[in-house]
Design brief:
This protein is α/β, with parallel strands linked by helices. Helix content is 40%, strand content 15%. The chain has a 12-stranded parallel β-sheet with strand order 1-2-3-4-5-6-7-8-9-10-11-13, with helices on both faces. The longest helix has 21 residues. InterPro entries: F-box_dom. This is F-box only protein 33.
Length: 486
């Protein structure tokens, strides 16, 4: 006698996803029960990087269509990451190295966008359209997290209107995606988490106006990031979202007016605030009118447990000194650049102002030149930071000279409380005067001393790419972890 559907679903509920698929091979009845809504409340997809087999072309699009057709109308949590556009070009060329060597056309070099880039962008839009076609009527959606890496398109001007017109039905697809996104927001009834980072043409300054009143009351996390001019969150829309506990946005969008709204005692206190400060965008999105010291004081008075995460990408120290206000409750700071230097004065300010709040500090620079921040100083600024910031748990350094004896000092100062100490091997240097008195291999001695200081086995990072992440993707993921950790 055949088992009832309820019992089959109950059996499935105890199995891993892989075992569910194996069990569904028993017969067609078991396969029908495989897609019971209660078994698939959460869906995490990474599209276009080949990690699930196959490239981001038609085969992967077919898989995506199948998943959206089966789960899109009832899934409660959807997390989607789309690979960088250049990986689409690599797949279309069938060359593993194409993502590194096949760059977008330089501005002015050719008025026509090459066919491989047109096809890659068209595939990207097709997949985004597929996702929103599947979920736009989903009233049960509670969490939507989207990331699309389109930074290289923005940098090379491929998102400009004349170039977009060269993509087959590009503007039409973007308009349709925007319309489906607005329908999703208006149809939603219990949305608690909405995160959209660098999705090509998805979010507009008008998007949030379509969010239903019910979801406006239930929404607890909101992060909107785009490569475009102007803020994506207006003060009037922020006023509707009175129950937000975590927020992510461009630093330039955190105006004095918006900060004043967040400091209203009528709102639920804010616990997490993630801010992206992109130096390349400051020419178009200046910091004039952003939150002042008084705004931060008022916000902290209402939200006593507020903690802030900032990523500053290619930002001059003069700008950092301007935005890092004393009352800003900074917990995580990521300074990332290709050539811009962070000065010792900036590190001095950070270690003094945030000595009681800073837990994560990443200092990264993707340049073969390794400046020494301790020149003309009695004390190394990184050692002082480790000494003053008593809650420091994560310290990652690449692209600056770190003297071996200072690295040992950092490990001893923070000990086992420093959960992550990531330093690239090429950033480490040894004092010639100390090498004269040292016995044995200096590298092995360093590993031994730092391991003793931390109370665990430690090694420098041999592959700098492991601690040099793609900035926008890292910010999206770190924002998610930071906001979830309330």
């Amino acid at each position: 006698m055949a088992l009832p559907s309820e019992l089959i679903v109950h059996i499935f509920s105890f199995l891993s996803d892989r075992d569910k698929l194996r069990a569904s091979a028993v017969c067609s009845r078991w396969r029908e029960c495989l897609f019971y809504p209660a078994l698939w409340t959460e869906l995490k997809l990474r599209i276009g990087d080949g990690c699930n087999g196959g490239g981001p072309g038609s085969e992967e699009t077919l898989r995506l269509e199948f998943l959206m057709r089966k789960f899109g109308s009832y899934v409660r949590e959807l997390q989607l990451e789309l690979a960088p556009i250049e990986s689409y070009v690599s797949s279309l060329n069938n060359e593993p190295s194409a993502a590194r060597t096949d760059q977008p056309p330089a501005p002015g070099s050719d008025p026509q966008v090459p066919n491989r880039w047109k096809d890659a962008m068209a595939t990207y839009l097709d997949q985004v359209l597929c996702v929103f076609t599947g979920i736009h009527n989903n009233r049960n959606l509670q969490k939507l997290s989207l990331y699309g890496d389109t930074c290289i398109l923005q940098q090379e001007g491929l998102l400009d209107s004349p170039n977009r017109h060269q993509i087959p039905q590009g503007d039409k697809k973007i308009n349709e995606i925007q319309q489906l996104f607005m329908e999703l927001l208006s149809n939603s009834r219990q949305l608690r988490w909405l995160s959209c980072s660098f999705m090509l043409g998805l979010v507009t300054p008008c998007s949030l106006a379509y969010l239903s009143n019910r979801s406006a009351e239930t929404l607890q996390h909101l992060s909107l990031l785009e490569h475009q001019l102007g803020p994506l969150i207006s003060p009037s829309e922020m006023d509707r979202l009175s129950n937000l506990t975590s927020l992510g946005l461009d630093f330039s969008d955190l105006t004095s007016e918006l900060c004043g709204l967040l400091a209203s005692p009528r709102r639920t206190p804010l616990h997490r605030l993630s801010l992206l400060l992109n130096g390349a965008a400051l020419e178009f999105k200046p910091l004039d009118g952003t939150a002042t010291e008084d705004n931060w004081k008022a916000l902290v008075r209402v939200s006593a447990n507020l903690r802030v995460y900032i990523m500053a990408l290619e930002v001059d120290s003069s700008v950092l000194l301007r935005v890092l206000k004393p009352s800003l409750p900074l917990e995580r700071l990521h300074l990332d650049s290709y050539s811009t230097l962070v000065t010792d004065a900036t590190l001095e300010l950070i270690s003094q102002q945030y000595n009681k709040t800073l837990t994560h500090f990443l200092l990264l620079r993707d340049d073969p030149d390794l400046p020494d921040l301790s020149v003309n100083r009695n004390e190394d600024p990184l050692v002082l930071l480790a000494w003053r910031c008593t809650r420091l748990a994560v310290l990652v350094i690449h692209g600056y000279t770190v003297w071996s004896h200072n690295l040992v000092a950092i490990s001893r100062l923070r000990g086992s409380s420093l959960r992550v100490l990531g330093v690239s091997e090429e950033s480490i240097d040894f004092d010639p005067d100390q090498l004269v008195c040292m016995e044995g291999d200096p590298g092995h001695n360093l590993i031994k001393e730092v391991s003793l200081g931390l109370g665990r086995v430690w090694r420098p990072c041999l592959d700098s790419s492991l601690i040099l992440p793609e900035p926008s993707q890292h910010f999206h993921r770190e924002l998610h972890t930071f906001s979830m950790g309330m």
